[in-house]
Structure formats: C-alpha cells, structure tokens
Write a structure and sequence with these properties.
Blueprint (H helix, E strand, L loop, with lengths): L1 H23 L2 H17 L1 H4 L5 H27 L8 H6 L7 H18 L4 H12 L4 H8 L3 H21 L10
Helix pairs in contact: 1-2, 1-4, 2-4, 7-9, 8-9
Length: 181
C-alpha cells in the first residue's frame, strides 16, 4: 500500500502543489495546504484502491481542504476584524460548496436536462467524447485509449463538441434566458 501511495505522490505531487498555489496565491500557505492534503490522503489510504479517478479524487480533497481552511479563517477573522490577505474571491467562487439550496438544485437539474437533450443533437462521436470527459471524468489519455485515437484528436473533438453544443443552445430561442453567449 505504501508503494501505491508513493507512486500517487510522485505522479500528482506537482499538480497538487500548483493547485494549492493557485488557490492560496501564497507559497507558504500552498505548502501548508498541500501538506494537509497529503496527510488526509495517507489517513484515507484504504480508499485509494476504491478510487477510479485518482486525480479527480485528489482535486476534491484539495478543494475541500482549502474550503475548510478558508471557512475557519473567516470565522476566526470575524473576531479579529480582518479578512485573510491571500483571499482570492474568483477562485473561491469555483470551489464547490456542499450546501446547495433547493432553488440551486432545481436550476442545476433543469440546466442538466436541457444540456443532455441538446447533446443528442450532436454527432455520436462528439456526444461520446463530451460524456467521457465531463460525466465519466476520464482524463484525455483515458479517452484516447478508449476511443483508440490520439490525445490531439480527443482535444479537437472536445473543442468542436463544445463549440457545436454552444451553437445549438444559442440557436434555441426558448433558451435565451438560460444560455449566456
């Protein structure tokens, strides 16, 4: 098991560090956050073998750890009357929250349904590529292996599929209020 964790560390250490740095915008805090993430990974080492997509799992742990640290800092700062200096609000907006309101859930379900319906208007190859990438969360390498094409082809298909899906969504006049250009 330890060699498994060593391999994961070797493969994803730089990625996790850069993600932490992007979130904190401070090298010292990024290193602290990264250390906290790896401690959680080691504590949950029995989960590693159950994980299909290690990178996505590590990203989730990183984002959740960052969000927890941010919340703790905000709670603490209410008493100290100062906000964290390294707070990067646009990045925080991207951090998913576990607390989703009923309205947000309904809206998300409606949008998901619309996008899935419109995906059926795409060519099958584009549907499959989008599905693998966004729903199944396969990496580009995994998709290229599954589809027996080069990574460049997968990237091209993703780009074309997203552009075509956007065209389809924008061309539907009933979705004017839902879709932004």
């Amino acid at each position: 098991m330890i060699s498994c964790l060593n391999g994961i560390y070797e493969e994803y250490n730089r990625y996790i560090y850069h993600l932490c740095l992007k979130l904190t915008r401070n090298t010292a805090e990024a290193e602290d956050l990264m250390q906290e993430v790896w401690v959680k990974v080691v504590r949950n080492e029995e989960q590693v073998q159950k994980v299909d997509h290690v990178k996505a799992w590590l990203t989730t742990i990183t984002m959740n750890t960052f969000r927890d640290r941010y919340r703790k800092n905000v709670r603490r700062s209410k008493y100290m009357m100062s906000q964290p200096e390294t707070l990067d609000v646009p990045i925080l907006d991207l951090v998913p929250s576990n607390d989703i309101s009923t309205e947000e859930k309904v809206e998300k379900d409606v949008v998901t349904k619309i996008v899935q319906e419109k995906m059926h208007e795409l060519d099958a190859i584009y549907q499959k590529t989008l599905w693998y990438f966004y729903v199944d969360q396969y990496s580009l390498i995994e998709i290229s292996t599954l589809m027996k094409v080069s990574i460049g082809t997968v990237k091209s298909r993703l780009f074309r599929a997203k552009a075509r899906l956007k065209e389809i969504l924008l061309s539907d006049s009933s979705l004017k209020d839902v879709v932004m250009a």
